[in-house]
Amino acid sequence: MESRNKPDIATVRAYWNRLPGGGCVLEVGKKFEVGTPEFFVYYDQIKKTDNELFVSGIFNFDQYSGQKILDIGCGYGWFVKEFAKNGGVVTGIDLSPSAVELTNKMLNYHRLAADIQEANAEQLPFTDDTFDFVFSNGVLHHTPDTHQAVNEAWRVLKPGGRALISLYYRNVLLQPLMFRITQMVMRLLGMKVIGRENMAKSASVEEFVRQYDGSDNPIGKVYSKKEALQLFSKFKIVKTELHYFPKRFLPEAVRRHMPIWLHKMLDNNLGTMIYFDLRK
Ligand SMILES: C[S@@+](CC[C@H](N)C(=O)[O-])C[C@H]1O[C@@H](n2cnc3c(N)ncnc32)[C@H](O)[C@@H]1O
Hints:
The chain is of the alpha/beta class. The chain has one domain: Rossmann fold, CATH 3.40.50.150. Helix content is about 40%, strand content about 15%. The protein is built from eleven helices and seven strands. It has helices at about 10-20, 25-30, 35-60, 80-85, 95-110, 145-155, 175-190, 205-210, 225-230, 250-255, 260-270, and strands at about 70, 90-95, 115-120, 130-135, 155-170, 235-245, 275-280. The chain has a seven-stranded mixed beta sheet, with helices on both faces. The radius of gyration is 18 Å and the shape is globular. The two termini are about 25 Å apart. Bound molecules: S-adenosylmethionine (SAM).
């Protein structure tokens, strides 16, 4: 996996510094200036709807009151805010200074506190066995050495502690034959999403997935379950779940009329992210 994408950490930092929060900011940032109260309110609505309907069960925001939580790659800080709101003692790190700034702004807006630091997931500035819960949502597939970052997550977790880490998943639609059909359908329907207009023309699955968070995103690796399990071999695996069927890639009319049960079914079977619920 590691040899597919070679940009270095400085290139990754520069990209995310321009775009803290990634793909969602591409869309929300078109409507509201990033970091304004309107931005936080709108973002909150999107995240709440998505998470409450589909993934909240695995996040368990309310089960960490008083516990030390680390959010690796906190982005614009939505998860930091949710854990802090529920009484968690939260540390958030991100490679990009603008993400640190945005997270602090979001915390101020919600009158919450957390320790937010600029740091690299591959070299965490914490001693061994520090945190009760290590969380990382949609981050470690963007870093040059994902294996090193996973080992760092393990190192800073207390023995018996929980980690919840998600990675881009090679779902059925991204299997070799299906991928060409997926792209053909996208082209036929004229499916384009802001900032990722070239996806339907990508030469490979890797190229396609790299663009989930923007056409210029330097790194976005995609994993089969078997490949990801190798990364997490130091951990005890409790369960895995698929989430985030990319509904936004569907035409507006289909999206609007899709019943929740169907969306949930697609989410659990054709999700673009695989979540690993882990213990040390
Ligand atoms: C798609 S965003 C996810 C943000 C947040 N976790 C969420 O789910 O909303 C990816 C984030 O990972 C951060 N990131 C990428 N590589 C990183 C690294 N090596 N160390 C720390 N953060 C990193 C980026 O700066 C960006 O903020």
